[in-house]
Amino acid sequence: MFNPNMLKVYFIAGSQDVPNHDLNEVVEEALKTGITMFQFREKGPNSKTGIEKENLAKSLLSLCRRYDIPFIVNDDVSLAIKINADGIHVGQDDRKISSFKDDFQNKIIGLSVANIEEYNQSEIENVDYIGTGPIHSTISKQDAGVHGGYKLVETLRQYDNVIPIVAIGGITEQDVMPLIDAGANGVSVISAIAQSENIEQTVKGFHKHYKKF
Ligand code: TZP
Ligand code: MG
């Protein structure tokens, strides 16, 4: 079952984000040191497909289970169902949530929502949290669009004061306080953790900022 605290340090990655490392090792280090949710986003140049993608998903899922951290699959609804993942994260251009929501009862459904227009065209009632961004410019998604700063979160939070919001896009630990102030429940990151030289220090660094509240 979903709990907004799961959004605090939400790590997203696929093998393409760690070209010189084994993703299993990177994710295990992140799990050990305190990430609160993990999303498998195997996507874009140099990503795996087919059975290779499925096998990687299965090994990451079993790692997450060992640390009791939710394992979310990006976009690939059939893979998420097949391996019994803890949830799915979809974008505005993906399948309609009502078409698969019955398969995710008691699981987690996340949706990317960047602005009020997207919010209004979304099935928010079927969603556990929204991912909002890009906050800053990002190297991890080629078509991320124009970055909108903390204002993106502020605008959506003013419009809906209940829906859990996780911010995304170029986020580092310095962004935690201003994003929480803007109304976010947490932050999601790829490169801050995937490219970190010291994952323990990075993950703990994110948590340190929440302790100031
Ligand atoms: N969606 C909007 S920005 C982004 C995604 C998946 C990439 C976030 O990666 P990073 O490295 O934390 O900027
Ligand atoms: Mg998508």
UniProtKB/TrEMBL annotation:
GO terms for biological process: thiamine biosynthetic process; thiamine diphosphate biosynthetic process. Residues 9-193 form the Thiamine phosphate synthase/TenI domain. Condenses 4-methyl-5-(beta-hydroxyethyl)thiazole monophosphate (THZ-P) and 2-methyl-4-amino-5-hydroxymethyl pyrimidine pyrophosphate (HMP-PP) to form thiamine monophosphate (TMP). 2-[(2R,5Z)-2-carboxy-4-methylthiazol-5(2H)-ylidene]ethyl phosphate binds at T138, I139, S140, G170, I190, S191. Pathway: Cofactor biosynthesis; thiamine diphosphate biosynthesis; thiamine phosphate from 4-amino-2-methyl-5-diphosphomethylpyrimidine and 4-methyl-5-(2-phosphoethyl)-thiazole: step 1/1. Belongs to the thiamine-phosphate synthase family. Binds 1 Mg(2+) ion per subunit. 4-amino-2-methyl-5-(diphosphooxymethyl)pyrimidine binds at Q39, F40, R41, E42, K43, N74, S112, K141. Mg(2+) binds at D75, D94. Coiled coil: none annotated. This is Thiamine-phosphate synthase. Its EC number is 2.5.1.3. It comes from Mammaliicoccus stepanovicii.
